[in-house]
Amino acid sequence: MNTGFGYWLLDMSLGGDTMGGMLGMASGIFIVLAATTFGSALLYAISGFGFAVLAAPLFLLFLDPARAIQLVIIVSTALSIVVLRGLLPAIAPWLLLRLALGSLVGLPLGLIAFRYADPILVRAAAGAMIFGFAILMAVSRRRPGQPGHHGKDWTAFAMSPGLDLAAGAVSGFASALVGQPGPPVLIYLLLAGAAPRTVRATLLAFFALSYGVTLASHAATIGIPAPTWLAAGILIPFAFFGGLAGRPIGDRLGAEAFAMLAIALLAVAGAYTLGAAAVAFATA
Predict the structure, then answer these.
(1) What is the count of structural domains for the chain?
(2) CA quadruple 173, 231, 13, 55: dihedral positive or negative?
(3) pTM for the full model?
(4) What is the pLDDT of residues 99-127, one digit of tens each?
(5) Less CB within 10 Å around the terminal CB: N or C of the chain?
(6) Which residues form the domain of 138?
(7) For a pLDDT cut of 90, what percent of the chain falls above it?
C-alpha cells in the first residue's frame, strides 16, 4: 500500500470531524494497527526491546513515514513509562546514568556521520553487524564443551564503568545514524551476562529517557500534527494492555529463555535493517 493512501487514510480517520472520521476508519486497517500495537507491546514488556522493530514496518505500510515514526515514538514513550513502574527496583541507576551520558556523547558523532555517510551502506553495515552478533551469541551459547553451554553463567566479559559509557556512546551513535539505539545496549548487557530482570528494567528506563527526549525534540522542532496525537491516543490503550499482559510473563521468564528471545529479536532487527537497505538500494 503506498504512503499516499496511508496519509489519506489517517487524515480521513482522524480529520476535521474526529468522531465521524473514527467511525469511517477502515475496520481492517484499524484491526491491523491495533493488533500490531498490542503484540509489539507484549513482546516489549517481556524483553524490554523490540517495539519499534516490530511495529514500525507495519505502520509504514499504512501511514506516511513521518507520521508512522512519530506514532511509534509517542506510543513507545507512554508504554515505557507504564511498563517500567513495576520494574523500578530492578533498575541499576549508575549503569543507566553511564549509558545515558555515553549516548549524549555518541549522538552528535552519529549526526555528523549521518550527514556525510551513504545512508544505504550505513544501514546495510549496521544490519549485518547486528545480525552477525545475534548469530554469534546464539552459536556461542549452544556450543558443546564451552563455558556457559545451555546459557548457564555465560559471559563474554565483565561489566565496567568504561564499557558502560562505551556501550551508551555506540547506542547514541546508532540512534542518530540508523534510528536503532536498542541493539548496542542489549548486545552489551547480554555479553556481560546481566540478569534478565536488570536487562529489561535498564533497557525500559533507557528507552523511556531516549524516547522522551526524542518526542520533545520532534514536538519542538518538526512539529507533531493533531491527527497524529489523536491516532496515538487511540492506539496507546492497546499498547497498555499488551504491556500489562507481557510484564508478568517477563517476570517468570528464565534466564536462558530470556536470552534466546533477546537474541531472536536482535536477529529480526538485523534482518529488517538489511532488508530495508536492500530495498532502498534496489529503488535508488
Answers:
(1) 1
(2) positive
(3) 0.68
(4) 999 988 888 887 787 677 776 777 777 77
(5) C
(6) 3-283
(7) 6
